[in-house]
């Protein structure tokens, strides 16, 4: 019975050590990290992106600026960050924020009729 308990203890220690090695850098920025400024211009016509990327790339800690032009009044919503931006035709609306969460975040347009259209996504990579 003692040998079985010893094996279980050994496996538990090995698992904890393995998890520590895998996760020790997740979510932390190196001391010499220099955030980048990432700017994207999104043009929406007929409820779709025109001449704009569908995946906006960033890295954790980057400063992101979205300039948005639309052909009809709506609200831009960055899911996961819960950022909202009212946009009107005829001028660019701008949203600036720091990429504080890694992951894949949909960018949707909420129309006045209550419909929602996913336009693009923000892909934020963790720092390694």
Overview of this structure, please?
The chain is an alpha+beta fold. It has a domain at 37-125: Immunoglobulin-like. The chain is built from one helix and nine strands; from the N terminus they run H-E-E-E-E-E-E-E-E-E. It has one helix at 2-23, and strands spanning 37-45, 48-49, 55-59, 63-69, 74-78, 83-87, 93-98, 103-111, 116-125. The chain is globular. The model is unreliable at 9-25 (pLDDT under 50).
Please work out how many helical segments DSSP would assign: 1
Query: Which CATH class of the domain at 37-125?
Result: Mainly Beta
Instruction: Tell me how many strands there are.
Output: 9
CATH topology-level fold name of the domain at 37-125: Immunoglobulin-like
Structural class call reads alpha+beta
> Roughly what fraction of the amino acids lie in strands?
over 45%
Task: Briefly characterize the structure.
This protein has one helix spanning 2-23, and strands at residues 37-45, 48-49, 55-59, 63-69, 74-78, 83-87, 93-98, 103-111, 116-125.
Key attributes of the depicted protein:
128 residues; Immunoglobulin-like; five-stranded mixed β-sheet; four-stranded mixed β-sheet; 1 helix
Secondary structure elements and their pairing?
Layout: H1 2-23, E1 37-45, E2 48-49, E3 55-59, E4 63-69, E5 74-78, E6 83-87, E7 93-98, E8 103-111, E9 116-125
Parallel strand pairs: 1-4, 3-9
Antiparallel strand pairs: 1-2, 4-7, 5-6, 5-8, 8-9
């Amino acid at each position: 019975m003692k040998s079985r308990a010893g094996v279980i203890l050994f496996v538990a220690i090995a698992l904890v050590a393995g998890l520590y090695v895998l996760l020790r850098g997740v979510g932390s920025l190196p001391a010499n990290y220099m955030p980048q400024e990432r700017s994207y211009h999104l043009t929406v016509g007929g409820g779709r992106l025109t001449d704009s990327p569908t995946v906006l790339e960033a890295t954790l800690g980057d400063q992101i600026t979205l300039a948005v032009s639309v052909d009809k009044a709506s609200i831009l919503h960055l899911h996961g960050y819960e950022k909202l931006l009212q946009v009107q035709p005829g001028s660019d609306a701008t949203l600036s924020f720091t990429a504080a969460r890694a992951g894949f975040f949909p960018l949707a347009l909420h129309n006045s009729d209550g419909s929602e259209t996913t336009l693009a996504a923000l892909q934020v990579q963790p720092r390694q």
